[in-house]
Amino acid sequence: MMLAIVGINTRANSCTGISLNSTDGAHIVARTVEWASGESPSDYLIVPEGFEKQSMLPDGKRGGMKYTAFYGYVGLASEDYVIEGLNEAGLSAGLFYFPHVGSYPKYDASLNDITISDTEFVAWMLGNFETVEDVIAALSNIRVVATDSRAQNLHWRVADKYGRQIVIEYIDGLATVHENKLGVLTNSPQYDWHITNLNNYINLKPGTDTSHEFGNITLSPIGHGSNMLGLPGDFTPPSRFVRVAFYQTSAPVLANAEEAVNQAFTILEAMTIPIGVQYSDKTKIPNIPSATQWTSVTDMTNNRIYYTTMYNPVIRKFDLKEIDFANVKYQQHPLDMVKMRPMVDAEVD
Predict the structure, then answer these.
(1) How crowded is residue 323: how many other Cβ atoms within 10 Å of its Cβ?
(2) How confident is the model at residue 40 (pLDDT cuts 50, 70, 90)?
(3) Could you tell me the pTM of the whole model?
(4) Which overall architecture, per CATH, does domain 4-327 show?
């Protein structure tokens, strides 16, 4: 079964990514994963060193590039296709939906030995590289192809424990690498378009405006946050980019990684897409709690990856330093064993 995030329709697919740093030098990336057409299989993978795999090809068969994981990693996945992950060397990688923009290299069967599916690109990066620089150097040695006619396109965020972050996009068959200095990513259009678009919101700043004369009357703020007037509130990728960039850049820099991790979850809670807003026909809304199916936060500095889901807001953590990737077995488990939000009785004296 093909990865749910790249199929069916565009209203089902959106992702929002941010980055934070703490004053003690920790580097954090975080993101949401949405698809509103129904529940998608959501699992986590523990992948050991030495794990071997062969990439899928457009004909649906595994005849593409063979790759072996030099580094072990933890991946958050749909089926066995890694959407977001962290390896033991401190490299983070994730895919984001990128419809209607760009194109991969044309498939050439004579190059199958260096051809990799777009949905397996994250796993290949996590298994093979320590730094963003290593990933960039290897891009010329592979050919990325789509393996589902419904997929359209993906782009990728890659970050390392040294603080460098990039966005990889395929435009006219060529890999384009953007230095993601802002640390924000959503979906289409291209990353550099989003950066240019931020200039349309140059007036936005935190806080509340002061009273001022307006003709013969005085205008005064009627609530806090009036400097934010004009901040877009819809869920299109350009609007989400602007909104989350504002939330990220106005957030205080906290003391340590754990505080920054919690801050990242809080910021992304404001980006959660409730189920139903994507549907004009209310009779077709799927029976799921949220269009935001899960959220992850990755601490590259301390080698930890955290997640919450639409079924459980409790933050769960993998500490990669505690996993023996040389000896652990490959394993795959659902993100949620129980698909219902936990409820406990409040304490009463």
Answers:
(1) 17
(2) confident
(3) 0.93
(4) 4-Layer Sandwich (3.60)
Q: With bands split at pLDDT 50, 70 and 90, how would you rate the model's confidence at 151?
A: low
266-300, pLDDT tens digit by residue?
Answer: 999 999 988 888 788 887 888 888 889 999 999 99
How far does the chain reach from its first CA to its final CA, in angstroms?
52
Instruction: Give the amino acid at 224.
Output: H
